[in-house]
Amino acid sequence: MNLLYWCTTIISAKKEINGVHLHYQQTGKGNHALLLLPGALGSSQTDFGPQLESLNKERFTVVAWDPRGYGRSIPPQREFPLDFFHTDARDAVDLMQALHFKNFSLLGWSDGGITALIAASKYPGLVHKLVVWGANASVTQEDIKLYNAVRDVSRWSENMRKPMVEMYGAEYFAKTWAAWIDGMIQTEKERNGNICKDLIPQIKCPTLIIHGEKDPMVPRSHPDYLHKHIKGSRLHLMAKGKHNLHLRFAKEFNSLVEEFLIS
């Protein structure tokens, strides 16, 4: 097979990491390795199609994963103890090392952004650059109200609900989404909302924080907090962006991220 085939094709595989068979997709042959980290209940398939297709495959090797209990990394069933983001961070880093990447950059959306923040703070020697959007270091009572407002997945738009039902089936999807919300409520109650605030100042790698100014799930206070407490970080606001800005405005997002990663 020729080099062009290996650059452009998207492979799908599993790797046993920390006792779980984690599913991932990989494409490109660039020297700069990237890991794409999906949001709550997300997967490589549901969350990163435009990035797997269109990020520069000569400059980057792009990996997108399904965290344990999500997507095609089932079994096990997903659980949400207080330290689940830390478990995901360890799994993510161990997966990239098992794939023989000595260092790599992290692109994390929403929950995946939280996981990426933790990984960048705890494994500074491995993480080259960091991009997060729709992420937060804490959960507030205001956030809980936003989550509870969308607890009933039958009221989601067809575009938002359909890929999740296709991936999980209606019952697993509804049950797991409710369990995620309950997990965040526990964090707010038992940890005063602190997900990873204590780790944020430890992030040393170049960091780009992107925020959609029309994001209905993540108030502006969250990216502002990250920008203030991650030394040297850059905050980029997308005026029309919502929570899924990397899907809705994929071309603009990909261009912005590539420029940051290459610079």
TrEMBL record:
Superkingdom of the source species: Eukaryota
AB hydrolase-1 domain ranges (all copies): 33-161, 172-247
Molecular-function annotations in GO: serine hydrolase activity
PANTHER family documented for this protein: VALACYCLOVIR HYDROLASE (PTHR46331)
Protein's recorded name: AB hydrolase-1 domain-containing protein
Record organism: Chiloscyllium punctatum
